[in-house]
Amino acid sequence: SGATSGGGGGGKIGIDHPRADSDFWNSYIKYVPQMAGELKVNLMPATNSQNDVAKLVNNVQALVGQGAKAIVMAPQDTGAVANLLQQLENKKIPVVTVDTRPDKGKVYMVVRADNRAYGTKACEFLGGKLGGKGKVVQLQGALSSINGRDRSEAFLECMKTRFPGITVFSEPTEWEGSKAASMLQTRLEQNPDIKGIYMHAGGVHLAPTLQTLKQKGLLVPPSDPKHIFVVSNDGIPQEYESIRKGDIDATVSQPADLYAKYALFYAKAALEGKTFKPGPTDHDSTIIQLPNGLEDQLPAPLVTKENVDDKSLWGNQVK
Amino acid sequence: MTTLSAPPPRMRLARFRDLTLVPVIVILLVVGAFLDPTFLTAGNLTNVLQQQAAISLLVLAEAMILIAGKFDLSLESTVGTAPAIAVMLVIPASAGGFGIGLPGALVIPLALLIGAAIGAFNGFLIIRFQLSAFIVTLAMLIIMHGFLQGPTEGKTLFQLPDSILYLGSTVWLGLPAAIWIAGALFAAGIFGLAYLRLGRALYAIGGNADAARAAGIRVDRVLYGVFILGGTLAALAGILETGRLGAIGNNQGVGWIFMVFAAAVIGGVSMDGGKGTILGALTGVLVIGLVQNILTLIGVSGFWQPVIYGAIILVALMISRIAGGKAQD
Amino acid sequence: MTTLSAPPPRMRLARFRDLTLVPVIVILLVVGAFLDPTFLTAGNLTNVLQQQAAISLLVLAEAMILIAGKFDLSLESTVGTAPAIAVMLVIPASAGGFGIGLPGALVIPLALLIGAAIGAFNGFLIIRFQLSAFIVTLAMLIIMHGFLQGPTEGKTLFQLPDSILYLGSTVWLGLPAAIWIAGALFAAGIFGLAYLRLGRALYAIGGNADAARAAGIRVDRVLYGVFILGGTLAALAGILETGRLGAIGNNQGVGWIFMVFAAAVIGGVSMDGGKGTILGALTGVLVIGLVQNILTLIGVSGFWQPVIYGAIILVALMISRIAGGKAQD
Amino acid sequence: MKNHVEARNVVKRFGPTVALNGAGIAIAEGETHALVGRNGAGKSTLVSILTGLQPADEGEVLFSGEPAPALADRDAWRQRVACVYQKSTIIPALTVAENLFLNRQAAKGATINWRALRARARELLETYEVDVDAQALAGDLTVEQRQLVEIARALSFGARFIILDEPTARLDGPAIERLFARMRSLREQGVTMMYISHHLDEVYEICQSVTVFRDARHIVTRPVAGFPHDELVAAMTGEATASYESRARTPGDTVVLSGEGLSLGGRYSDVDISVKSGEVVGLAGSASSGKVGLAETLVGLRKADSGTVTVNGSRVRPGDVPAAMGAGLGFVPEDRHHEGFVPLLSVGENATFPIARKLGRYGFVSPARRRAKAGQLIRDLDIKTEGPDQPVGDLSGGNAQKVVFARALVDDPTVLVVINPTAGVDVKAKQALLGAVENAVERGAGAVVVSDELDDLRICDRVLVMFHGRVVKDLPRGWTDHELVAVMEGIED
Ligand SMILES: Nc1ncnc2c1ncn2[C@@H]1O[C@H](COP(=O)(O)OP(=O)(O)OP(=O)(O)O)[C@@H](O)[C@H]1O
Ligand SMILES: Nc1ncnc2c1ncn2[C@@H]1O[C@H](COP(=O)(O)OP(=O)(O)OP(=O)(O)O)[C@@H](O)[C@H]1O
Ligand SMILES: [Mg+2]
Ligand SMILES: [Mg+2]
Description:
The complex is a heterotetramer, with one copy of chain A, two copies of chain B and one copy of chain D. By secondary structure, chain B is mainly alpha-helical.
């Protein structure tokens, strides 16, 4: 290719962002150039595939055409990238995927927190607060997203095995606030004794949930018997704000900063020819072996009133 | 000399054509009551109305635009963009605003103005340049959504001035204000399109624009008015939705437009212009709202929900076709 | 008495109306080359063509349907559903199939058959029951997507028989097979709509269905044919896309249909029927493909991409309007 | 006497076509002024300029010596002129009442009182003796009823100047008489009128002076009185033209078209008809006689409730136009805009659809052969067009009708059914079209001519007269006008 090669350790890194319509991903997108500066990687201008795997393929092909020597991407559809990964493997271009684990095709490293663990953590928290009985609602994302499915399945599985006394209503919201509000409102009308809510995405579900609870007069402190326990998922500043106010009770912090940092870290390492082995790392995480590569499982802490002011949480670092 | 002495039965039936979906609504009410005891409670039905209030304003706008023989897809983007830009003009930069800091009381007028401006720009391209309304408003849908994503950089706007939350979240005389507002606007629409010259002009333009022009109707001016009114209603829908949800997400309104068309058309509004009523469109909204509510209540698996939902649209369409008696376009 | 002597200038110009977007394409090529050195390489242009191959088949299908005066939104769902169902009929239950286990060689014919069946069902509702094509195919879009999500429970199918992967991933004479296939089908479409009796019948039907019937054209039969052909082409697009991506995701094809319409209309196909050519539609696809490629290459921020993208659609639309000389509908 | 309306040196171009080339007209206060000319002479174009629908490229329009209002000021135009346009301005989805009072349903800003509006509409329809329900949807009316509604609307404005562009092309005898009575009384009230028609006898009957346009130019303006008929025709056509002489012939023995026991609810009942090769059968009858419905059944546009249609010895599936055409039928439908042509497609293509399969093999249509065939039809029927590639939508009304005719004749039909064949067609074209029917019959075809025009019926070997859905009389050649009209009106049994 006719691209000029920049400085740094061995070539340019191409990066594709998966979507631009959620707070979590937007934080990630913001961290990327910052981390690139810190890690001194030669990063190409990012592309954005807007949650469309066909666009992802086009974008990556273009990046490779422009001389990318390593690719960082976050395929929201983990199956449909198999061919792309094959092509990249043929061209000896290492791939780091963020947030999702491709079903097929070689990857150098998967950087993600365990989405099943999110669901389990939320279940454990709600189950404990409710004392193992009552009704809870989970506001799902889109059913076609692997992360949404992982959270949902793990949540349901944990409820079934550990808290069989709890009834779960699952509402597919397609990541839409409007659907979330309507479905929650309807469900609360039908079952006024609902005591817990698990939201798959704080960015889109938080405000509609609070607004719905407020209208019903259910937005009361945890000390009040009418209180509904709410667990969110993402770790954006607004969630922390609500935890501090007592409007919601917990959230699972997806490490947007660590995603960006370690994605670039491993991409750079790949270009430098480094290799990794399964086992604990120096950054509180574990690398596990996958059939098609390795996965670094980053920590995803549950944030409650107790640790909400922890400065190390990425949500407390955004201004 | 001829056979036309008595008003033929078909003509009398025409009056009831607006109401072809009423039996469907009745069936849905009965089926819903049967499937879930919560369904027929005042609380649940109020919820249904409140949930449909915002989208119903889009249906009102689209019905008028369709009757005038045009098309507007971009309404769905206006639902998010108009209030978002208005809010960003008001809130401080630290909360995600532009840092211009206009007074908070201006946020509603600003949002409506932005909606009107989007409508006017659509009208300008479609009327002045005679471009295809479908593609112009499709492009505007994409562009306007970009104008929501770009300045917010994809973030949800959480810190909103109270004024914009008020309408969508307050209660007047025991009913959410949004229901009153939508009800009043529909009443005005039903009345205006049936009893005002300007309203009738929409039918004339949609039915045969040349004939309307020959009859002295200022076709272009009326069409501009309809697009501007449409944009304004979409902005108002956005304000109500913002109040209901308490924040402006990045995909507020996204994906609504298909439902809007479905509601209008099963309610008897023709995609070819000149035909249909606002009352019919309202029954279309209600059918869709009730179907969604019932599907939520009985908890159909999310994967199969679209199939049932689509099938019900088809059935409603058939009923509206059979009762309406005429081919649809 | 008449002016038959010299072919008047307007007629000659009309021939070039199909090509109004050619200057736009040339400008895009020049601008692209200027902005990024990779752009004008054979590799990149091949990529553009391959990336557009599948969607271009939808544009071909939609252009024919539009010319015949109808509408099909559901094509985008067929892109995912037809190959997915075909694959599930073939692969074992352990890989996400139905466990019926038909022979793997059947998967392509099956997918095409499913596409044809969806088209036929659309045609049945629209022609037989005279329902609104827009809403019928909108409902079918929703339903068919449900038929992809339901059986797969939202999961991606990635254990595919080799036969379905072949067409979308192989290379013939140095070019991806998908490009050859799309090229051949476009050539057939250009020829067929210009020179075949059946092709001309589409124009007659779209221009005035009653007159076409009175001229002895079997309108209903031709329309059925167009819908079936449309569904089949969409299924083929799905097969190519499946081969390109190596798996069938739950969103395959979702969101394409707007781009399909945009491509057809900026390429000069009228939403009102009876106007436009397949060659024009092809130039529309190329414009959209080049714009997407350039935006990707220069790395415009994802937030603002839609704005630029939509604006370019508007500009192309204006050029096509000015060069075409007639109001668009 | 001063001029109420005047247009001077008007030029109007449509692309390469010059529709008006420095033409003008001057209409004196209170007169009924005829404008005549061949199809495509520019008459309707002048109408659209005189009513402010289109701007002229050059020239000026004066009302009572004052310059015409700005194009945008529709209200001012409507005060000065009311018009029955050649193209329908009825809005099908609205009721008759609303169409009559379009954009004046109520005072500006006031709410509409529908009951009062219907009453006003009924009154208006009664005044003009238009027998339609004010509440009916205009789209459900027959072509004729729609035309009557348009006329009633134009006359009801109270404008001092009224233009009627071929109002009688779709009316039957009594309706024309009623229209003329109305026009006379308006003239007595001092209303100025411009009247366009291809029926020169009407011009002589109702008008005081006449202007002739030819090839987009003004040729002559003269008082009607003392303007000999053949001189008028010569002014229009630019050459001496003899009136049409129908030809004599003896019909053959083979029956090429027959209908047996045909009934269609509300339209006609128990009709038998048979047409022999080499025979022209007329089908006449005044409004609602059912003749058009019957003809449409014969060609397959409608399905009869009972009875059979046989074309060339083979039973045709009811309601199947392609089958009828396949059996050797060609036809001209009643409403050319509705069923006659595809406006966006070319003259050549519209004219050759029925023979597309013969213009090439394997489903292929050779554009060259199509163009050649179309060129021949254009010459045969003297169609005024830029050429075979011009869209029919751009042709003048009469020339579009000729294209529809060309389509009917293109496959050398053995049976020809023509409904109102000469509606809106100029004198010379009318001769060409009637001649074409007779030529086809001389080649051995049988023909059905459905019309109220006595001129059209004169070429028939016999005329079947229908009344209220039944055939009441079979008149052989040699009837007198009076006799035929009497049967049609049901005056004589
Ligand atoms: N909108 C148009 N576009 C292109 N050409 C047009 C248009 N309107 C009229 N013409 C052309 O202008 C010429 C004059 O047409 P016009 O309709 O005025 O004729 P006319 O005298 O009314 O004929 P007829 O007796 O058949 O109604 C014709 O050649 C016609 O083809
Ligand atoms: N589309 C229609 N819908 C309902 N009734 C119709 C329709 N067309 C015609 N009719 C009615 O059917 C009867 C016979 O009509 P038909 O057109 O066959 O008679 P016609 O002799 O052609 O009359 P005219 O001379 O008025 O055209 C009339 O009463 C007419 O009003
Ligand atoms: Mg004319
Ligand atoms: Mg008739």
